[in-house]
Specification:
- Four copies of one chain form a homotetramer.
- The longest helix of chain A has 20 residues, at 306-325.
- In chain A, strand 11 and strand 12 form a beta hairpin.
- In chain A, the strands form three sheets. In chain A, strands 12-11-7-10-9-8-15 form a seven-stranded mixed β-sheet.
- Chain A is of the alpha/beta class.
- Helix content of chain A is 39%, strand content 25%.
- The first copy, chain A, is built from 13 helices and 15 strands.
Chain lengths: 331, 331, 331, 331
């Protein structure tokens, strides 16, 4: 420690902006100076809670002491804001996705890859202590080389159909996390993608052109396999589980419950509830992301950046193509 | 195999008689020839199901080919029938308890200990595969020397007050199993007994002079400790758990559920029901007891006999004395 | 009860013949009269243990009192023996598979479907108490309509490559059980099959033209989805789990452990071992199959017959086709 | 919120002083101004980490803006410092125990009970989210009226014999937490105490006049029962479990594991490790205690104070008397 905290700005006061803002304000290695948010009421309320100033995007970037920017605005603004902040010499913490269109990312690839560009794309599960513990076990050889994975990732309740329209669809919005986990844990980039999907939960999701229930199968060049199970509605809370199989057995992450309390009755033994959604389930991961951003501002290389964002998006696009064609898509 | 099955008689067609009868009839090493039961209807029904004949006690004992007797009649007849069968040269399988009065057992001790007396007292938990697996782990040193035990033993629903009156009371009827488990697993006979108990479940039990909720603490000469938790009504099925502690950790037996099915809902994850009572929970143990009786008829020494019956009863009597006096009782 | 036991013959004294023979001999509703087995030593040994006579296939079928035949010989003989026994007026218990070639089954379909043909094809999982409990929960609406399934089915250790050659391959030999479970639990026949598979465990399996690690995705006309995860080697015992998802939550079957004993040490809490393989895991199911055969001999309709055998085999063949083509196969 | 943070001082820079100091410094409702610690090196190091000043006890109390004092020094100084701080008009957060001698507390009872005295005695388990969830379930009637409790409380590794000598002994130092939990959860003050104890783990503990393994039984006037199981060394981490029994079933708190990762091998399924000791297990509770101290400084009544401290100590003294006498002690 002993260093001065890094001066940063936050863009966006929505759900993700609030989470990242609270974590930034509580992090002693960061000095959250500015909130950029066009809605005056929302902006004033959050700035008051965080104890930071309000600024326009131009004002914030003009702050000569500014070292970093957290991009937590609406998805369609992520890439432009990221590019502008990088050009102004700031390190960037960009809430995922960097963009929903792989072609657009490719068009800006050279600039995003520039040596001086410090770009951290915040995939929350990479910072979750449970998944990190799994990764550490696998790296330590707990099951031998990983041969296959089963990933269960199911939301508690379906989103509004309005959200679905701008989300990029189940594969780009939701499965993208699981596709990134598969890449991370398999230790080899998948080269074949298959997806099958349905609209079983909410017809409005189907009318919006999307699906709400899916299974994805990935295969790597050496034959490793991963299965992803997605649903927009579990009926029992947020379901986030992974099983990794190797020659010496299996390592897995189970769901997080709200407490270790259980109740035993004539019906059997009942655990406490599962965490309801990502805000609660990944609260620790979000705080750790912010600490990693402080590392980046100290000069560390981002643990997740353009490569991971593009690779996961490419797999998501392949899954979307596959579920429409009924055939394996090679990436 | 290859030998002729041993010809045996069963006394008693009540709940325990039916269990032991079915297991005896299904055991290829035994030839269940006679059922002795004074109630004609009950006798005819069970004999029909078991495919055996009906006989009076005298007729059964007069069968020159008879090798063994299963005593599963009412508790107050156990000792007399056992003595008579032993005198007639039969091996005896006596449902526990051998008697509820330690003084009576002592009065017949010489006869019961005669070299030719083959007396097997059937404590069901000694034959349960789960408790046997625990014992095997402890004997293999899984936790080091056993230093202490916690035993949970709770019935699902309380007995009728009428049963309570003839049962010998909670300590002699119910805790006696746990006291025997404690002796078996501690590896050293307890020398101090303390008990505290209440009537919290059914006032009729209290009016009958008994208690329905109890805690017992045992201590051995070397300082090993055991705690027993008893209740006549759990509200969640039959609760039969043991934890054994040593220098290297703990080994425990958990309850048996009816299947491995669980249901996950907004309320959490719910296991299947626990087994409701001893008939279901110890079904395997009862079949194994019968197989051990065949071993005894083949000439093996009974694994549980007069020593265990008297020691457990002495501990139960000490617990009863302690709960009335409020002081440790030395045995 | 009260009826005479049904006189039956067993064909085959291999691994499955021994299991079915022991269960038949122990079932009071059946009279196991004959064992048909060409290897004299093996035949004599098993007949001795079962207490039945030895006969040639022709002699057994010529027994005028014979009512049923258990076909547990090598797979390539199943169909011919079944047809012969049915022609002779016997009810047939045929160990799965009825045949590995769907075209052959179709060629004999009319005869196998004849009104008087009593054909029970023994898919063991249909008779497992845990999967039956799951089915009962789902039928009772515990999770609402089933929308999707995840089935984990992994062997403990891989088979010899010699077995692989005659097995019909992973999909026809192993996944066929899971495909049948999917049909049973989804409540709607799958119409689309996709499979991806690799040889990761034993190169000899690949040299024999087979795979040892697979993922299968099924889809029904209404969009229900099922995923099957298969491996020939788990490294932790026999892994047989199913999760069924619906609007109100999830119901699942977990693995069976050898006892409820766990050991707690510095490394964490360790359960007892999982059952090692199908003989142990499905011991109860095999006994229940035999009891169902007694039901069939009493006149009941077989719960699993030609329809289930053909449908599961068609799905397995489609999976094999799909893993070679990389495309969905419609059935 | 919106108020100025409360200015406070911390006394003690040992293990507990560090925990409370970090939580106080991170709490936005508190302004940690002073650290009081006689050892210059230790003091400078912690004050540097906490960003607070150094002061003597007299200097700190002389600060006219001081509103509260955290007493986290050695146990034998707790009561004198608490009294001095209260006299100076400060609210007090006193790490447990307030004192090890009930007679001394009684001698100062009037002063400690003065209407203006704001005394919070920090029993950590009262603020643990898992035990709070248990209490909430019980209060909501999840099991009906609580009839009995089983409390398991075992340390991972035994303390140094040097610590034992100043600790007050197992009952005053360790069991006191469990005795407080029993009082809290039973809903009725225990009136009878029995204890049995041994020295099985470290002879040096016995030479210091203490025990390392104990069982305590409590009984309330209405007959409710509680059992406490204590050990100074579990061999598997910090074991903190409670089961509460009532007419409709049981509610329990299980141990906290370091992550939801498990590993499945030939040996069975192994959970992640249990938390090693109270610092990790009760990290959330300590932060919540500090937040409660902010509530007290805002004017709230302390949730735990003199009554709880004296009652738990009285039970601990009774347990010590009972384990020496072998009889129930009435309190």
């Amino acid at each position: 420690m002993g260093n001065e905290p890094h001066r940063i700005a936050l863009v966006g006061a929505g759900r993700m902006g609030q989470i990242h803002g609270v974590n930034a304000a509580a992090n002693r290695r960061l000095d959250l100076a500015w909130l950029v948010e066009p809605r005056p009421d929302v902006a004033a309320d959050l700035a008051g809670r965080l104890g930071c100033g309000l600024a326009s995007w131009e004002q914030a970037l003009a702050d000569p002491a500014l070292a970093g920017v957290i991009v937590a605005s609406s998805t369609d603004t992520h890439l432009d804001l990221t590019l502008a902040a990088l050009r102004a010499g700031n390190a960037v913490f960009c809430e995922k996705p960097l963009d929903l269109d792989l072609a657009r990312l490719r068009a800006h690839e050279a600039e995003l890859r520039a040596p001086q560009a410090q770009l951290f794309v915040a995939f929350n599960r990479r910072f979750d202590p449970h998944f990190q513990a799994l990764k550490a076990r696998l790296d330590a050889g707990a099951v031998g080389a990983v041969e296959s994975l089963n990933i269960i990732s199911q939301d508690a309740t379906p989103p509004h159909a309005g959200f679905v329209k701008t989300s990029g669809g189940l594969f780009r919005d939701m499965a993208i996390h699981d596709l990134d986990m598969a890449r991370w844990l398999l230790g080899e980039a998948p080269s074949e993608v298959f997806a099958s999907a349905s609209c079983l939960i909410d017809p409005a999701i189907g009318e919006a052109g999307d699906v709400d229930t899916a299974r994805i199968v990935l295969k790597t060049p050496s034959g490793r396999l991963a299965m992803i199970s997605n649903s927009r509605r579990s009926g029992y809370g947020y379901d986030q589980r992974i099983e990794a199989f190797g020659a010496r057995g299996m390592a897995r992450v189970d769901n997080v419950v709200q407490s270790t309390v259980s109740t035993w009755s004539e019906a059997g033994a009942t655990s406490d509830r599962f965490e309801p959604f990502f805000l609660e389930r990944y609260a620790q991961a979000y705080a750790r992301e912010m600490d990693h951003f402080a590392d980046v501002l100290d000069g560390a290389a981002p643990k997740v950046g353009l490569d991971e964002a593009m690779a996961a998006l490419a797999l998501a696009e392949a899954a979307e193509t596959s579920r429409r064609s009924g055939s394996v898509v090679r990436v």
